[in-house]
Amino acid sequence: MATQMATLFRALLLLFTLSDSFGRICCHGVGINYGQIANNLPSPSRVAYLLRSLNISRVKLYDADPNVLSSFANSEVEFVIGLGNEYLEKMTDPVQAQSWIQQHVQPYISQTKITCITVGNEILTGNDTQLMSNLFPAMQTIYGALSNLGLSKEVYVTTAHSIGILDNPGQVSLEYVLFQPNPGTMDPITNLKYDNMLYAQIDAVYSAIKAMGRTDVQVKISETGWPSKGDPNEVGATPQNAKLYNSNLLSRLQQNEGTPANPSVPVEVYVFALFNENLKPGPASERNYGLYYPDGTPVYDIGIRGFLPRMAYAASWKNELSFFVLFLSLASLICTL
């Protein structure tokens, strides 16, 4: 049972080269994954209102959906956008890479904060050798296109890797995974003690990077979460465990703490995920990682409260906002006459 429960823990990491629970989620290190593999999700404009009510200012997409990017124009939300595995071969061509940036980034970046592009997803843990060989050239070409367009200082290029390959779930206790009280583990080389699996995984990645002679790479967690429901054999996928994991995670992040090996560097994560997605393939757990149902109801209570406006209300809110801006403009014009 411990093996099944520990494997439900989900974590992916992003590597950033440093070159060129209150009622709202308030800690600096928290973002959210906004997946859309569903046929019953609210419109992006309503989601923008929900995230504003939650005080979430960092969002990760799996594509570069123009409807989403337009709906968050003139907001303070920072976006990580995704370039899917299916594009990698094309993205090794500088002309096509620049065309993609011109179509998916340039039209929006003046009003919507796009700060990162993830090229591919979990490629190195798959078995597609062609994708593996295209990954780094595609990243280089995308970065080159950003440089040519004067955007390389605004937008980072990275890729996401699963860190599940670091686990031996048969030897990991559920308490260790869920941030609950436990004896912890001691790193025999550094003599650092770890009381949860996520921080141990982050430092394992830092250690591997350091062993390669690099100290200029920052690790961020692009996905971490726990499913509230699963198939009969996914016994750990329960609302209780999901609540424990995410509420304990948020509690730790609100302290702006770092890992044992990097105590001065606050951990940054994107919680997986905002909504349950009813069309995702795979086991039932894949469709039940959301903090919210599509109607805006919390799947379980972790102490955060957001507001998803009704469709009519959301439309009227936008109209009222536009009218207010128009009113201010007219008032300003009258004052100058």
**Number of helix segments?**
10
The radius of gyration over CA amounts to: 21 Å
Class from helix and strand fractions: alpha/beta
**Percent range for β-strand residues:** 15-25%
Task: Show unreliable segments.
Answer: 18-23, 312-337
User: Based on DSSP secondary structure assignment, what is the total number of beta strands?
Assistant: 10
Shape: globular
Q: Secondary-structure element sequence? A: HEEHEHEHHEHEHEEHEHEH
Question: Main sheet, how many strands, which sense, barrel?
Answer: 8 strands, mixed, barrel
Mean pLDDT: 87
Give the helix proportion (percent range): 25-40%
| Alpha carbon gap, first and last residue | 76 Å
Strand order of the largest sheet: 1-6-5-4-3-2-10-9
Protein name: Glucan endo-1,3-beta-glucosidase 14
Keywords: Glycosidase, Hydrolase, Signal
Organism: Olea europaea subsp. europaea
InterPro entries: GH, Glyco_hydro_17, Glyco_hydro_17_plant
Would you write up a description of this structure?
The chain is of the alpha/beta class and 337 residues long. It has helices at residues 2-8, 44-54, 66-71, 88-91, 94-104, 129-148, 174-177, 197-211, 239-253, 311-336; strands at 10-17, 30-33, 58-60, 78-83, 113-121, 156-162, 185-186, 193-194, 217-225, 269-271. An eight-stranded mixed beta barrel has the order 1-6-5-4-3-2-10-9. A two-stranded antiparallel sheet has the order 7-8. The radius of gyration is 21 Å and the shape is globular. Residues 18-23 and 312-337 have low confidence and may be disordered. This is Glucan endo-1,3-beta-glucosidase 14. It comes from Olea europaea subsp. europaea. Pfam families: Glyco_hydro_17. Residues 1-23 form the signal peptide.
